[in-house]
Amino acid sequence: MKALITGANKGIGLAIAKSLGKSGVKILVGARSESRGQETVKKLSSQGIAASFIKIDLNNFDTIHNAAKEINELDLLINNAGIPDSHKTDQPDLDQKKMISDYTTDDLRETLEVNFLGTHEMIKVFLPKLVKNGKIINITIPIQPNDFWHPLAYQTSKAAQNVMTMAYALEFKNMHSEKQIFGIMPGGVATDLNGHTAGALDGYIKSAEEAGEIIAKLALDTENHNGQIVQFDGKIITDYEAQIH
Ligand SMILES: NC(=O)c1ccc[n+]([C@@H]2O[C@H](COP(=O)([O-])OP(=O)(O)OC[C@H]3O[C@@H](n4cnc5c(N)ncnc54)[C@H](OP(=O)(O)O)[C@@H]3O)[C@@H](O)[C@H]2O)c1
Q: What family is reported (predicted)?
């Protein structure tokens, strides 16, 4: 079995690679930096995991098309790479206190380009490479704004990604395809993306390793998750309403 994981050089992506790799899945380490990707391959190989590097930069679609030329067949495509709000334009970490009115068009464009358009291109390009019963998994977040969680660019980009997940799932179903596409919400995970502070509000911060294990388990189970957005505890998320009142 072969899995391509984007953003596999650190955080949740690396943890998914380790968990799947330990189950015998061959890992294609998608990373935008060759040195960080190759370093990850070394790390995984030293743990007995079959891994190789493949350059994928969601801001550069040529890398996606070139990567596809090197891959004949895939069992799992895991779209993990993603950025929070204002990654370049404002500050490195997710700013949960940012006012909605302070978002710029550039903030929105930058985040949508990576999380939505980049993921869309990955799916479009790699779908023909997916085996008959292959799976596409998109790593996602809660997209209902509430008092504690309303990063506009990040949530909007992942909401668009979720809609795409469901639209592809509908098409798979209507075409009687055995392929599946679904989203997994790992919940708050301490990584560079949030300055290792995620989960502070509910007092529970998951490690990347815990998240990786949950995601690998869902990726390898025999259930039909097509079209679902599955939370870390197995709950299927169907509520998309904002928690305003
Ligand atoms: N952490 C959480 O609490 C949490 C919760 C729910 C969902 N998620 C989702 O989980 C995924 C992984 O997040 P994480 O927490 O592990 O974050 P992370 O530690 O910051 O890792 C993000 C990964 O994405 C890569 N990446 C960023 N921009 C890219 C681009 N343009 N092209 C290719 N790769 C790119 C990064 O590569 P570089 O190393 O080169 O920057 C890195 O490998 C994201 O989609 C995120 O939205 C995270």
A: Belongs to the short-chain dehydrogenases/reductases (SDR) family.
Q: Is residue 240 part of a domain?
A: no
Q: Which of 177, 175, 53, 168 lies closest to 122 in space, CA to CA? A: 168
- Give pLDDT tens digits for 65-87: 999 999 999 999 999 999 987 54
Q: Is residue 236 part of a domain?
A: no
46: CATH: 3.40.50.720
Tokens 């995620």, located at residue = 198
Strand partners, 49: none
* Tally of structural domains, the chain: 1
Ligand 1 pocket, residues with Cβ under 6 angstroms = 6-7, 9-13, 32-33, 36, 56-59, 80-83, 114, 139, 141, 186, 188-189, 191-194, 198
Higher-confidence residue of 164 and 241: namely: 164
199 Cα nearest atom in ligand 1: 3
| Token pair of 216 as six digits | 């690998």
Per the CB < 8 A criterion, the answer to whether 63 and 81 are in contact is no
